[in-house]
Amino acid sequence: MTKMKKATLIIKNIGQLITMAGPAPRTGAQMSDLGLIENGGIAVSGEEILFVGESEKIEGQAELAEGCTVIDAKGMVVTPGFIDPHTHPVFSKTREKEFEMRIQGKTYMEIAESGGGIRSSVRDLRETDFATLKEKTKERLDRFLSYGVTTIEAKSGYGLSLESELKQLEVINELNKTHILDLIPTFLGAHEVPDEYRSDREAYINIIINEMIPAVTKNNLAEFSDIFTEEGVFTIAESKKIQQTAKDAGLKLKFHADELQSTGGGELAAELGSVSADHLVYISDDGIEAMAKSKTVAVLLPGTTFSLSGKQYAPARKMIDEGVIVALSTDCNPGSSCSESLPIIISLAALQLKMTAAEAITAVTVNAAAAVDRIGKIGQLVEGMQADITIWDMGDYRELPYHYGVNLVSQVVKKGKLAISN
Amino acid sequence: MTKMKKATLIIKNIGQLITMAGPAPRTGAQMSDLGLIENGGIAVSGEEILFVGESEKIEGQAELAEGCTVIDAKGMVVTPGFIDPHTHPVFSKTREKEFEMRIQGKTYMEIAESGGGIRSSVRDLRETDFATLKEKTKERLDRFLSYGVTTIEAKSGYGLSLESELKQLEVINELNKTHILDLIPTFLGAHEVPDEYRSDREAYINIIINEMIPAVTKNNLAEFSDIFTEEGVFTIAESKKIQQTAKDAGLKLKFHADELQSTGGGELAAELGSVSADHLVYISDDGIEAMAKSKTVAVLLPGTTFSLSGKQYAPARKMIDEGVIVALSTDCNPGSSCSESLPIIISLAALQLKMTAAEAITAVTVNAAAAVDRIGKIGQLVEGMQADITIWDMGDYRELPYHYGVNLVSQVVKKGKLAISN
């Protein structure tokens, strides 16, 4: 703590202060260590955490600035602001009719023939103007924030043309400047081969490599490059070629891997030093072993399996037991998982992935920070880190998965400012 | 419409006005008929609905009172206020540690031995004073309201002694007077045999029959009598005896039936003319046939199966196809289903029970009204009925199950008054 800085915001008398102080990221049994302080207190100066410890020690450690905001969190739980490391939030049209068709047993082909599927989101994205996209996306950011999230990773991938991919990334970058939430932009031109290149996929791959990646990096529009590596989408060889190009151009990597079948995406992500590999419902034992040896974070998306009425969920327990760094995310998108709520994902992580409340909280804080390469900056409540804090209206952190489908957020502090107060 | 009455609240330009006008309750294909009016409007006078129809016709049909509240619901969905026909909301302590033990694979016995299970809620209820119970329950009512619910059925059943059962019912009746939500009280003294009568269950049944039911009816504390009919709890013969006594004393009936195995609870409910039979996960074909021939409503609780990581859900499609009146509920309780959100139940009804959005909305409006014997009063937006109305921030009603785990309520009108405005 620097003696010069004065506290501009204090949270005192916190029933359970979950600091996540300690190893970052966490694996195995470490995922159960929340760095919990009972009757805790936090002092914030500007955008930064000044002091974290016992509530009664705040006054001895931090001098209060004039007009300092003081929050009494008696009987409440405080966590780092949650981080959602995998979202597709830039779209206009929702796809609820398709959801209902699936419930009624319609096949993927029947849905596609009725104009549904990812192609409908591509048409939507291309047809929708920048201002409308920005407004629709902003509503989603507000909803993320209201559920205790303070940072999201946000992907392109519904444009699938140079112009439309850039438009989507520009929406993300613009909202990162104007909205209180932090957005981390990811280029996902390799989300699918667009209709106009179905008969010449090589040509589309060349556009990604020769036009899109250079334009994205030149304009500094993305931090990550992601790809949908899957049978029928991009093969392992194509994925390697595209992602190596992205890496050489200075982008960090992410993968949609082993979502529908085991194709070796997890192994490839580990091999290329990818920051994360996501989905992993069908990851092989070799894939788990490769990821456990690497620093690549496994971002699990149980909401997607849930929302698609899937039978098989990612093998989370095996991954945790074998030492893979596990994070969780909503996968917020208009097709397979329309939700901005990490709390419902935590309930699903408990019920379907058999993760404890502590493991799930680790997976949306410090391990999610690792999945977006922000360790040491966010995801932990530690002196000097960014003051992103969520205050929960619950007496015990285990209530988070248990009290399902409702919003238990009391207040959200983003960069030291009170952003939500319910 | 009475010419004398002036509109005190108007909702105009409603994108999709879901009136539920028509048959009440609804079975089979009728459950898909929402009585939907595009660009609809509603006029309310005091606590009552004055006009329902096309938005442009409001002015010709209703004279506006001075200071009339006008809500523009352009691009939104409006439904009857939702009705939750099966809740256990009166408790103090949540049981999240038990939830986590289940996730970790602990057995029912291990949980019971560690002090968990329904017995812990009985201890809690007996030890907690009236004011605390009222305050804790009030918080839950506020949460129900925030998720678009305007009426709940509320059970006793954690007291299991004359004094404590009455205390619980008094909390419900007191909150029904002071809270804007309507509560419909149900006596559930036969929720379980309390510890002190484990070796003499006949004695406890006699207390229910000779002391509790008379005290409940004498003080007019409940409208319904419910019982947990299940192997190891109350047998069919015991259930028949207790419920016949309750019926003779003037109480309407409900049953917890066929939740854990097929014990013939559905059949017994139909035979005794019960208003509803609830759970029904293991209802037999004979039970479905008996219920289809009766007016007994099947109240399905998919959140309970979900929250217990159950593999088998109630056979909703079969029930609907065979003509059973189907309603949905949260089963809000501290053990097996801690949630006040009917929207997440609607998502589960879609994903697990394969009910469409229209069927699920029918199940929490007009059919839920049948489950609490309120047909013609609530659950439909029809002239002369109570003005309980929920306005949803969505363009199409099918978004309700699809956009899961978040709160899409914009405003709630209860008895003609704006109770929630997000």
What can you tell me about this protein's structure?
Two copies of one chain form a homodimer. Chain A is an alpha/beta fold and 422 residues long. Chain A has two domains: 7-80 and 380-421, Urease, subunit C, domain 1 (Roll); 82-371, Metal-dependent hydrolases (TIM Barrel, Alpha-Beta Barrel). Helix content of chain A is 36%, strand content 24%. Chain A contains 16 helices and 16 strands. In chain A, the strands form two sheets. In chain A, strands 1, 2, 3, 4, 5, 14, 15 and 16 form an eight-stranded mixed β-sheet that branches. An eight-stranded parallel β-sheet of chain A has the order 6-7-8-9-10-11-12-13. In chain A, helix 6 (162-178) links the parallel strand 7 (149-155) and strand 8. The longest helix of chain A is centred in the middle third of the chain and has 18 residues, at 201-218. Chain A is globular. The two termini of chain A are 31 Å apart. In chain A, 58% of the residues are buried. The mean pLDDT of chain A is 96. The A-B interface holds A 94-97, 99-100, 103-105, 143, 147, 303, 306-307, 309, 338-341, 343-345, 347, 350-352, 354-357, 395-396, 398-399, 401-407 and B 94-97, 99-100, 103-105, 143, 147, 303, 306-307, 309, 338-341, 343-345, 347, 350-352, 354-357, 395-396, 398-399, 401-407.
Provide keyphrases for this structure:
homodimer; 422 residues; alpha/beta; Urease, subunit C, domain 1; TIM Barrel; 2 domains; 8-stranded mixed sheet; 8-stranded parallel sheet; 16 helices; 16 strands; 24% strand; globular
